[in-house]
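Format notes (please read before filing issues)

Several people have asked whether sequences and structure tokens are stored in separate files. They are not. Every record keeps both together, in the order shown below: the sequence lines, then the token lines. Line labels are part of the format and must not be stripped during preprocessing.
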Amino acid sequence: QETTNRMNRLSQAESENEVSLFRTQGQIEQERMNGELLKIQHEHSEAEAKVNGQSEAARIQAFMSGLDKTVPKLEDRVFMWQTLRKTEALQAVSEGGAQLYYTPSDVNLSIEAKRA
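Then the structure lines:
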């Protein structure tokens, strides 16, 4: 009887070890797959950013070359582009429900004391 009980306990311990081993192997495989998923997502994110950057570069180039004859100074065209981008950003913010806060440096605010 004692030998049978000992054999049963050893068999049960061995089964528990096997279950634990399979569980650990499953966790390792899941982490490996999660790593591969993150790598793929990162690659897709980089590819998307590259396409967006190329699209924006083409847009800027078209804008600059389109104004080349009418606005010959490059810095004037750059200023116009920056103004256009600020306008687009403000439009995007205004279409959402966001609140916009300005600092004095954002609006070129100055306070003067005038004597009467």
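For reference, the curators noted about this record: DSSP finds two helices and no strands in the chain. Helices lie at 2-66, 74-95.
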